[in-house]
Amino acid sequence: MDLIDKIKFFCDEKVIVYGFADVASYKEVIIDDDLRNFNYAISIGINIPDRVIDNINTPDGDKAYLDYYQRVNERLDETALQIQDMIRKENHSSKAVKASYILPNDRLEGSLSHKFVANLAGLGWIGKSALLINPYYGPRIRWATILTDLELPVKTEDYLLDVRVAVYV
Ligand code: B12
After folding, report:
1. Cα 2 to middle of ligand 1, angstroms
2. For atom 24 of ligand 1, which residue has the closest CA?
């Protein structure tokens, strides 16, 4: 099994959706200058179930959301690191970007935009909420990214730079 098949197999086991993106032409997706030499990215996503989101703002609902949010982040971060290590072992460079990592400045920004990478990977479009909308899970999905120099089989960009705004008449 080659490395790309290994990554796909691993993602099938660990996450709900994933895709490959060519970020070479969209360097604005990467905010941290130190990460700009990577040309490819793997976007991974795990959904938060409807029963959890629908109960936010109820007495027990907020805590359930927080618990689930943390568990999903842990799972995404752990999976991203495992994929990073899998790629490094085969002598390619790679850097996992955690789900909620924030750069140590006072601007509340991540080292790259997970939403933008997910869009480039064909996993959804940007909705009027400014969230990434996946066709199956809507916005109820959290993301992490693995950057790499490994050439990935990039899928045609189904929703490339697609911004959808509802028009009310
Ligand atoms: C800091 C942060 C916040 C801050 C907001 C500050 C900010 N700068 O936006 C706070 C704490 C307030 C926050 C709140 C929330 N957040 Co937040 N947040 C982040 C974090 C860690 C960094 C965001 C960042 O750096 N933004 C900086 C700008 C430059 O990046 P950007 O907003 O993605 O913008 C890019 C795109 O807009 C793109 N772009 C511009 N035009 C277009 C057009 C198209 C078509 C495309 C594809 C891209 C694109 O270019 C920009 C530059 O790359 C990200 C994780 C990450 N690293 O992406 C999560 C993230 C964006 N948050 C997320 C979520 C879920 C939320 C909340 C809903 C949580 C909650 N339950 O309340 C709220 C509401 C957010 C909202 N409605 O927008 C999710 C979004 C998931 C999704 N489905 O889209 C993310 C991706 C976390 C994750 N791992 O899944 N968040």
Report:
1. 34
2. 109
pTM of the model: 0.93
Give the separation between CA 114 and CA 80, rounded to whole angstroms.
Answer: 12
Residue of 102, 113, 132 to mutate, ligand 1, most atoms within 8 A of C-beta: 113
Q: In 3-state terms, what secondary structure has residue 21?
A: strand
What are the strands of the beta sheet with 17-22, ordered from one edge? 17-22, 40-47, 141-148, 94-97
Q: Is residue 126 part of a domain?
A: yes
79-100 pLDDT per residue, tens:
999 999 999 999 999 999 999 9
- The answer to whether residue 84 is domain-embedded is yes
Identify whether 106 is part of a domain: yes
Q: Tokens 């916005």 correspond to what residue?
A: 139
Q: Does residue 29 fall inside a structural domain?
A: yes
